[in-house]
Amino acid sequence: MEAGYPRPPYPPQQQAMPGRTASMDPVPDHGENSYKGSGRLADKRAVITGGDSGIGRAVALAYAREGADVLIAYLSEDDDARETARLVQAAKRKAVLVRGDVRQAAHCRAIIDRAVSELGGIDILVNNAAHQASFTDLQDITDEEWDLTFGVNIHAMFYLTRAAVPHMKPGASIINTASINSDDPNPTLLPYATTKGAIHNFTAGLAQLLAAKGIRVNAVAPGPIWTPLIPSTMPPDAVRTFGKNTPMKRAGQPAELATAYVMLADPLSSYVSGATVAVTGGRPFL
User: Fold this and answer.
1) Domain total for the chain?
2) Residue 248 domain-assigned (yes or no)
3) How far apart are CA 146 and CA 116, in angstroms?
4) What predicted TM-score, i.e. pTM, was given to this entire model?
């Protein structure tokens, strides 16, 4: 499979934030034709933020094919969210769509309430929603941009986790999407990279805090992954060569991360907590 994935240079392309899957060239692979489930998450109930596209869609698809029902939280990308829901339903699992801004604590509580009411509970929380933007000059980072990045990437993670934990039973799993930027920050992604460092720390501390409740907390640290975030937030030259700086000389596809999220949610991974799984195309994550 690996040999068949596209390599840079990618065709010139730019999108407005937050980006759409159908406009990308090449269109990302979420595992539509490759992921085969084996019942590892049978009858689990999962909440996935940023679940409309990219990594979130690949995780939603994999979870459904492993037997889980899925709530897909997203900002405003209705067409992408409907396609993710279709993939979940094609696996004969329930899909619940919740639109809105996770920067708002009340909306995060509403997401959890919908999961409890429509799925019957929460076994897995995947904190995956993210915002990023590129800057070459510190003075170009506005107060609003700094607050927006922290609001989406770290504040929402706290709001959602705090709301979800009272509904989680021993054996439940929380998985946070960190980044290679938590360890090796890209200076042009300063606000984003800073929040990813915070997520790494949040994961490590939360794992210890929730261990007594039997709730596991882990993170996945992706390297460069080909998602709508890339053409909608990076300059043209960076998009064309995206992923070329990895040992594999290409960007990863969302489908290539799904197994990490499945493994961390699998009840058989019962002694795995406080860990970060790096999926970086060979770039070291320390």
Assistant:
1) 1
2) yes
3) 32
4) 0.97
